[in-house]
Write a structure and sequence with these properties.
The protein is an alpha/beta fold. 39% of the residues lie in helices and 15% in strands. It contains 14 helices and twelve strands. The strands form two sheets. Strands 1-7-6-5-4-2-3 form a seven-stranded mixed beta sheet, sandwiched between helices. α1 packs antiparallel against α2, α3 crosses α8 and α10 packs parallel to α14. The longest helix is centred in the C-terminal third of the chain and has 19 residues. The termini are far apart. The structure holds pyridoxal-5'-phosphate (PLP).
């Protein structure tokens, strides 16, 4: 089965009891046993839940992994991976990560004894240098394309660095989705998702997932899913799964809208920087053309005039909603400095290019002409 067919059919067997084409949502927290210990593989809903298992099956299939574990949020999924480590173990992290990931590493896991070193750039050589600075590198953590600068990391190259260092490779595939990029085929051990974004796709359900290359790799994560208990509820799993069924058609529209918006802004005098991997002058354009099947739905702008210009731009938008998050059918405009990246200290943020005038557009699936008109009007052009 090809991608779009798997997205619709995996984990969606008709209900054996009634023939219902869409499996009923399994709300029960517990399962009746014929006699103590005699059951059908389900005991208690934190441990096993059929609706969650259906979602896990489709995500594993789309990412090309053997198994998946779903969580109550993307950060809960990250927590489960990090909890597989022990104090003194090292994490090599990418240079431009979601602010909440940096907060988790710096303000939670450093206190619990993990060593963390950041690559200075997305290049594999910088990941290697960061790995060398750690006594016991155990995980390499990559977000590609990155948030909000849309830089790409070469997954094949970094997977060789991870292997040589004796570390596992985690790729946060939230921005690309498996429709555009399949990290396991390129050497990743784990793929991480905030399913809150494109996979759910409708900005109405928070969730996370870890897909592992092998069942054995998922084992410690699966153990923590039950032992720590940050599981998603059945209705959340159902909504996410319903979103996944339309991922292929939505992604095509997200990508073509982002391309149209980016192309309409080339050379605009109100912009200091326009970042979209599909433009030839983007520093990751060549890699994006190889590693991804299209360039994604995100466009990042740095406005001339700093904070005031970004503030004015967000207030003038009529179709894009000024809001955190991304990947929904509706277009959103995030101001990372006051929203997603506010938890990163200003000096660190600015050294990474996340300045007061930067805004990140998540292009939805509306009519491209409306999106272009909205952005141009908000820029005053
Ligand atoms: N990874 C990326 C790339 C994100 O953008 C986010 C959230 O914005 C997360 C992880 C965390 O996911 P969640 O908000 O579902 O906890």
């Amino acid at each position: 089965m090809r991608f779009a067919t798997k997205a619709v059919h995996t984990g969606q067997k008709p209900d054996p009891a009634t023939g219902a084409t869409i499996p009923p949502v399994s709300f029960s927290t517990t399962y009746t046993q014929a006699a103590p210990g005699e059951h059908k593989g389900y005991e208690y809903s934190r441990t096993q839940n059929p609706t969650r298992e259906n979602l896990e099956a489709v995500l594993a299939a789309l990412e090309g992994g053997e198994a998946c574990a779903c969580f109550a949020s993307g950060l809960a999924a990250e927590t489960a991976i990090l909890q597989t480590l022990s104090p003194g173990d090292g994490v090599v992290a990418g240079h431009d990560l979601y602010g909440g990931t940096v907060r988790l590493l710096e303000r939670v896991y450093r206190r619990w004894g993990l060593e963390i070193a950041y690559a200075k750039s997305p290049s594999a050589a910088d990941f290697e240098a960061a790995a060398r600075s750690l006594a016991r590198p155990r995980l390499v953590w990559v977000e590609t394309p990155s948030n909000p600068l849309l830089d790409l990391t070469d997954i094949i190259a970094v997977s060789s660095v991870a292997k040589a260092a004796g570390a596992r490779l985690v790729v946060d595939n939230t921005f690309a989705t498996p429709y555009l990029q399949r990290p396991i085929a390129l050497g990743a051990d784990y793929v991480l998702h905030s399913t809150t974004k494109y996979l759910g796709g409708h900005s109405d359900v928070v969730g996370g997932a870890v897909v592992a290359r092998t069942r054995e790799l998922l084992e410690p994560v699966k153990f923590l899913q039950n032992a720590m208990g940050a599981v998603p509820g059945p209705l959340d799993c159902y909504l996410t799964h319903r979103g996944v069924k339309t991922l292929a058609v939505r992604m095509r529209q997200h990508c073509s809208n982002a391309r149209a918006v980016a192309e309409s802004l080339v050379g605009h005098p109100g912009l200091e920087r326009l970042l979209y991997p599909g433009l030839e002058d983007h520093r990751s354009h060549a890699l994006a053309s190889e590693q991804m099947d299209d360039f994604g739905g995100m466009v990042t702008l740095t406005l001339r005039g700093g904070f005031d210009a970004a503030d004015r731009f967000c207030r003038r938008l009529r179709v894009f909603a000024p809001a955190e998050s991304l990947g929904g059918v509706e277009s959103l405009c995030c101001h990372p400095v006051t929203m997603t990246h506010a938890s990163i200290p200003k000096e660190i943020r600015e050294s990474r290019g996340i300045t007061d005038g930067l805004v990140r557009l998540s292009c939805g699936i509306e009519d491209a002409e409306d999106l272009i008109a909205d952005v141009l009007a908000a820029l005053g052009g």
